[in-house]
Amino acid sequence: MRGIFSLDKNGQDFLPSLAWSVARITRTDGEKEEDAARDVEQGRSLVSSTRISCLLALLALSAPVALGACGDTRRREAGHLALAVQRYRTADNPKKPGLADELSAVPCSDPDVCSAKATCVKTASATAKALRKKSEVEQVFVQLDGGRLSREDPRLEVLMKTLDEAEALLEEGQDGLFACDEGMRALSRKAGLR
Questions:
Q1: pTM > 0.90
Q2: Contact 93, 66 (CB under 8 A)
Q3: What's phi and psi for 7, nearest 5 deg?
Q4: What's the CA gap between 39 and 21, in Å, rounded?
Q5: 3-state secondary structure of 7
Q6: What are the residues facing 13 on neighbouring strands?
Q7: How far is CA 155 from CA 134, 138, 140, 141, 147, in A?
């Protein structure tokens, strides 16, 4: 049986050399020294079973770590997204537009994370736009109440339309909350959060 790992550096068959090296373990120290000198003279490699055991243990331990790296990325990104969604959802309305921008800036490379993010960003963006429009309208109404703006001002009609748009966007944001919650629950299960 010759494979790519069965030859030593001199091109000799490695497996008989390996078996011979393992058999030498049971010999006395004096015999081992003679065998080591003979190995060097004959160009055989010196391989101990301890080295082979260590190599196999290292390979066995490194494989799960390498394979688990994909899950770590999903888990890390899902954690960042969950934190951003929680901060957005628990914030007061004046802070939500800025937190919606932060939510949309959360990086994602995992398809499951990106899917949940897209769902939540859609609802957060609609709500953020609505809150910004509402804030603009409120500022004009403050001017109206202060007497700095007349009730016949043509900008009031535009503001009423803006207020209607804000209301429609708020409804869109509210309608998307369930989809965002479901996406985050599914992502939490897949990523192993909580």
A1: no
A2: no
A3: -110, 140
A4: 10
A5: strand
A6: 7
A7: 15, 13, 9, 11, 15
DSSP assignment of 65-82: HHHHHHHHHHHHHHHHHH
3-state helix, strand, coil in the chain (%, to 5): 80, 0, 20
The domain locations on the chain are 69-191
Q: How many helices (H) and strands (E) are present in the chain, helices listed first?
A: 6, 0
**Contact residues for 67 (Cβ-Cβ < 8 A; gap 6+):** none
Q: 37: helix, coil or strand?
A: helix
Question: Where is pLDDT greater, at 118 or 69?
Answer: 118
Q: To which H or E segment does residue 160 belong?
A: helix 155-191
**Tell me: the pLDDT tens digits for 86-114?**
999 999 999 999 999 999 999 999 999 99
The Cβ of residue 164 has, within 10 Å, a number of other Cβ atoms equal to 11
- 61: which 2 tokens? 């331990």
Q: Could you tell me if 90 and 125 are in contact, meaning their C-beta atoms sit under 8 angstroms apart?
A: no
Residue 14: helix, strand or coil by DSSP? helix
> How far is CA 192 from its chain centroid?
12
Q: Which DSSP state fits 13?
A: B
